[in-house]
Amino acid sequence: MKIAVVAANGRVAGKVITEAVNRGFEVTAFGRKENNTDAKDYVQKDLFDLTAEDLKGFDAVVDAFGVWTEDTLSQHSTSLAHLCDILSGTDTRLLIVGGAGSLYVNPEHTAQVSDGPDFPDAFKPLAAAMAKALTELRERKDVKWTYISPAGDFQADGERGGKYILGGEELTLNSKGESIISYADYAIAMIDEIEKGNHIQQRISVVRE
Fold first, then answer.
1. How confident is the model over 101-115, as pLDDT tens digits?
2. What is the distance between the alpha carbons of residues 33 and 36, in angstroms, rounded to a whole number?
3. CB 4 within 8 A of CB 62
4. Could you say which of 57, 72, 74, 172 has the lowest number of CB atoms within 10 Å?
5. Where are the domains of the chain?
6. pLDDT, average across residues 156-169
7. GO: which molecular function terms (predicted)?
8. Residues with Cβ < 8 Å from 128, sequence gap 6 or more?
9. β-pair type (41-44, 153-155)
10. Can you tell me the distance from the alpha carbon of 76 to that of 131, in angstroms, rounded to the nearest whole number?
11. 18-68 pLDDT, tens per residue?
């Protein structure tokens, strides 16, 4: 399969690229900085400068965009809207590296992880910005998107265990009562979804088995 990874310089993106390359995917990475990934094909270009022509012909595009400072949080919405606009009406799938704060914690889907008393105040603006972007994404019926939320404890340096539980809109715990996954196992789930998943216009989530 032929995939593109956008905002490729980050650590989650790096794990996704490595997983895809190791499985024999044809990967093109797009990033603002010099290539620090395992992708042989690399285009140094800002996400906001990408055009429909740049992303033409790919089976899937992985959006690994992320910002954290208060003055840039709105870019979660604007970057996703830009990618949706240039993929609108095509068969190319758009898979988004999402957040856990917007996962629901009740069957009625009225309370989210970020609403909980133990959710750190420092992360609430980020969670709100990512939740807003997801809400806007749900309105896009012209794009074959899939939003993949990690577990609550998303570990950059966690081991690659190779097994995970696929969840949906609600926070899912493993048999130990944990909500945890490594970047490496998240990458496995992302590439599995590209390879054999069909959660079109859905949000799914993953947790370590």
1. 999 999 999 999 999
2. 8
3. yes
4. 57
5. 2-208
6. 97
7. oxidoreductase activity, acting on the CH-NH group of donors, NAD or NADP as acceptor
8. 101, 114
9. unpaired
10. 9
11. 999 999 999 999 999 999 999 999 999 999 999 999 999 999 999 999 999
Phi, psi of 153 (to 5 degrees): -100, 100
Helix (H) or strand (E) holding 199: none
Average pLDDT over residues 157-178: 97
Of all helices (H) and strands (E), which one includes residue 40? Answer: none
Q: What is the 3-state secondary structure (H, E, C) of 74-113?
A: CHHHHHHHHHHHHHCCCCCEEEEECCCCCCECCCCCCCEH
Give me 64's structure tokens. 């690994």
- Cβ neighbours of 53 (radius 10 Å): 8
Bridge partners (DSSP) listed for residue 147: 96, 203
Number of alpha helices (DSSP H) and beta strands (DSSP E) in the chain: 4, 10
* 3-class secondary-structure state, position 193: helix
Structure tokens given for 45: 């270009």
pLDDT at residue 20, as a whole number: 98
Percent of the chain with pLDDT strictly greater than 90: 100
Give the pLDDT confidence of 108-147 residue by residue, as tens digits.
Answer: 999 999 999 999 999 999 999 999 999 999 999 999 999 9
Assess if CATH 3.40.50.720 describes domain 2-208. Answer: yes
**C-beta separation of 11 from 183 below 8 A:** yes
